[in-house]
Amino acid sequence: MRRPTLRDVADGAGVHPATASRALNPQTRHLVSPETADRVNRVARALGYRPNPVARSLKTSRSSSIGLIIPDLTNPLFPPIVRGVEDVLGPVGYNAWIANTDNDPAREEAAVESMRSRNVEGFVFATARLEHPLLEDLAAANTPVVLVNRRLAKPTVPSVTADDAAGISMALHHLVEEGHKRIVHLAGPQDLSTGVNRLRAFRQALHEHGLDENQTRIEVCRSWTEAAGAETLNKLLAEGADFTAILAGNDMLALGCYDVLAEHGLRCPEDVSVVGFNDAAFMDKLTPALTTVHSPQYELGAEAARMLLEELSEPRTHPRSVVLPVTFKVRGSTAPPRSP
Amino acid sequence: MRRPTLRDVADGAGVHPATASRALNPQTRHLVSPETADRVNRVARALGYRPNPVARSLKTSRSSSIGLIIPDLTNPLFPPIVRGVEDVLGPVGYNAWIANTDNDPAREEAAVESMRSRNVEGFVFATARLEHPLLEDLAAANTPVVLVNRRLAKPTVPSVTADDAAGISMALHHLVEEGHKRIVHLAGPQDLSTGVNRLRAFRQALHEHGLDENQTRIEVCRSWTEAAGAETLNKLLAEGADFTAILAGNDMLALGCYDVLAEHGLRCPEDVSVVGFNDAAFMDKLTPALTTVHSPQYELGAEAARMLLEELSEPRTHPRSVVLPVTFKVRGSTAPPRSP
Asked: Taking CA atoms, what residue in B is nearest to A256?
C-alpha cells in the first residue's frame, strides 16, 4: 500500500501543501486559522500520515533548485536554519545551493549571479541589510525571494523573523525582576533589522518598566561577533562605566563579554549579569550557562522554505512578514546585583 | 590591470592549479615536494597573487557542480568541513549540493540519486562506513568520489582524514604524564574508520606506554553522540567501574560525560579527567574547557575539494589516502589523579 503523502493530506483538506505542513507543525500552527489547522490534522490522522522526507525526492523527476544565501555557516546560528530549509525542500524534490558571503556584498552578488546561471527558481536570504539594492532589484524583477532572520526596512520582500521586540522585552523584564537598574545594551549593527529592532525594543522596554534612562547605556557594536562584543565592553570598562548587567543583542556579543569580564577579574553573574539573544548551540554548556532569548532557528528556516514554495506555486501581490515567537531561558549568567 | 589568478600562478610554476593551491597553504604544503612548494610560492610573490574567492566564479561560464554528503550540519564538526569544501570550489566556478543523511542509508541513497539526476560531476562523502556498498558501486562505476573524515576498510576510494592514531597517542601520553593509569576509552561505532582506528590506536598506545591492560577498560558507544557518551558512562558508573580518566573517542562523547559526572557529584578534572577528539567549535568555552585532539576540520574539507577537482581533470588509477596532522590542546578538563 502506498504511504500517504503531505500532498494527500493537503488534497484531502482542500489546502495548499505548504499550509498543510504548517498546520501539522505545533510551532507554526498559529499561522493558519484554527479551523484549517483542525481540518488538516483530522485528515492527517484519518489517512495515517507520517512525515517522510525521503519518499518524495525518490519519486519526483523535477529538477527544482533554490539558492540559500547565508553569512557564514560556521556561525552556530545558521546550521539549524539551513537544516530547516533543507528538511522542508527535500520531501517536495527541491534542493538548495548554499553560499557563504561573510556579509561581503561583492561575494553575495557573485553567488547570486552564479546561482541564476544555474536557473534557481528562487532564493532564501539570511543576509538582508535594511537597505539592500540587490534584494530590491530581485524583487523588482519578480524573482521569488524570502528573507530569513533579518528583513528590509520596507516590507517589499516576504520575511520570517524571530520576535525581536518580545525577546528584548522578556530579557529586560528578567533583569529588572532580579533588581538591576544600571543596565548596558550592546546593540548590533544599525544597518541590520536585528540590530535596529532590538535597540528600539530596548528603549521601549526601559520606558515600560519606568527605568531611569540616565542609569542605562547603549553601545552599538560594529558587528554581531565575539570580537566586537569584547572590543565594546573593553571600551566601557576603560571609561569606568557603571553597570550591573549587560543585555547583549546576540549570543556572540555576550560570549565576547565573558572573556573580557574574566580578564578584568569580574565574575559573572556575581559582579555582572549577562543576557544573550538566539540561544545558539552550546550556549547552555558555557560556564556560566548563558541566560538568553531562544529564537526558533530551525523553524525560521523551515517556514522560509514553506513560504518560498508557496511563492513559487502561487505568487502573491502582498508580501507577508511572518514573526515567530521566542521564549526566554533563565540560566546561570544572571543573578541579583550586589548593590542595586 | 587584471588581478593574477590561481591559474596564473599554476601556469607560471608549471603545475596543476590544485597543486598550486596546496603549495600556497602552510597547512597542506607538506603534501607537495619542497621544490614545487618553493617554486609556486616564488611565482605567487612575483605575480603579486592574492587568493580571491569571488573573481573566478564571475568569469567562468561553466556550470559545474558536485554533491557533498554529510551526516548532520548541526553537528559542529561539519560546518568547517563544508566551508573548506566551498572555499576551494568557489574560486574555480564549482558549487556544491549539500545533503544531510542523519547516517540513514536510505536518505543517503535518495540524495545521491537526486544529485545524479542533476548531473553532478563528483561527490565528497563525510558519511563513509567501513563497508559501504553505495560507495563501492560509485567507485566501480568510475564516479569521481573523495571521502573526508572517515574512510572505507579497503583503500579503493581516495580519502582525506585526520591522523586518528597520532591523536589518540598524544591523548594517552598526556594522561600518563599526568599520572593516570586507570583509564577508560569510550570508543566510537566499530563500523566507522574513526571508531576502529582510534580504538586500535588506544590499544597500541597502552602497549607503548607499558600500561597494565587490566587497569584500563574499553567501552564501545552506539553512536558518536552526547547521548551515547552519557549512556555508556552511566553504565560504567552503575557497575562501579574504577577509573581516574576518560579518553573519549570524540568531543560529543566527552560532552555526554560532563553531564553524567555532574549528575553523580563527580568533579572534572578533580575526580575524573576527560579528553575529547576533534576540538569542534566551543569546546574551548566549556567549563572546564575540554582538553582534546585538534583535527584540522576546515583543511580536511579544503583538501577533499582539491583532490576531487584533480580527479575531475586527471583521473588516477591509484586512489590516494591523505592523512592530515593533528595537534593536542591541553585545557582544563585534565589534571593529575588524586590517587594514581
From this structure: B285
Which of B63, B69, B98 would you mutate first to test chain A, the one with the most A CBs within 10 A?
B98
The domain A164-295: what is its CATH number?
A: 3.40.50.2300
Q: Does the distance separating the beta carbons of B287 and A282 come in below 8 Å? A: no
Q: Which of B58, B96, B107 sits opposite A113 (nearest CB)?
A: B58
Nearest CA in chain A to B54: A107
- pLDDT of A87 > 70? The answer is yes
Task: Decide if A113 and B83 are in contact by the 8 Å CB cutoff.
Answer: no
DSSP A203-248: HHHHHHTT--GGG-EEEE-SSSSHHHHHHHHHHHHHTT---SEEEE
Q: Is the pLDDT of residue A339 over 90?
A: no
Query: What CA–CA distance (Å, rounded) separates A64 from B185?
Result: 46
pLDDT tens for each residue of A141-172: 889 999 999 999 998 899 999 999 999 999 99
Higher model confidence: residue A214 or residue B222? Answer: B222
For domain B1-52, the CATH class is: mainly alpha
Fill in the DSSP letter of residue B163: -
> A290 in contact with B at a CB cutoff of 8 Å?
no
CA distance B120 to B57: 17
Chain-chain contact of B73 with A57 (C-beta, under 8 angstroms)? no
* Regions of chain B where pLDDT drops below 50: 53-63
The answer to whether A289 faces chain B, any CB pair under 8 Å, is no
Look up the pTM and report it. 0.79
d(CA B213, CA B226): 26
User: Hey, are the CB atoms on B86 and A100 less than 8 Å from each other?
Assistant: yes
Q: What does R_g of chain A's alpha carbons equal in angstroms? A: 22
SS3 B230: helix
CB contact under 8 A, B99 and A118: no
Interface contact flag, B83 A72, Cβ < 8 Å: yes
- DSSP string computed for B62-91: --EEEEEEES-TTSTTHHHHHHHHHHHHGG
Model confidence band, residue A340 (pLDDT cutoffs 50, 70, 90)? low
Backbone angles phi, psi at A270, to 5 degrees: -60, -45
Give, in degrees to the nearest 5, the angle at Cα A277 between A255 and A30.
155
CATH 1.10.260.40-classified regions of chain B: 1-52
Q: What is the CA radius of gyration of chain B?
A: 22
User: Which pLDDT belongs to residue B243?
Assistant: 97
Query: Does the beta-carbon distance from B76 to A282 stay under 8 Å?
Result: yes
| Domain limits, CATH 3.40.50.2300, in chain B | 164-295
B80 in contact with chain A, both atoms CB, cutoff 8 A: yes
Q: What is the pLDDT of residues A54-72, one digit of tens each?
A: 333 333 334 479 999 999 9
The per-residue pLDDT for B340 is: 62
Asked if A53 is an interface residue toward chain B (Cβ–Cβ < 8 A), one would say: yes
User: Looking at the complex, does the CB of residue B302 fall below 8 Å from at least one CB of chain A?
Assistant: no
Asked whether the beta carbons of residue B63 and residue A100 sit closer than 8 angstroms, the reply is no
**How far apart, in Å, are the Cα atoms of B74 and each of A75, B143, B249?**
11, 28, 19
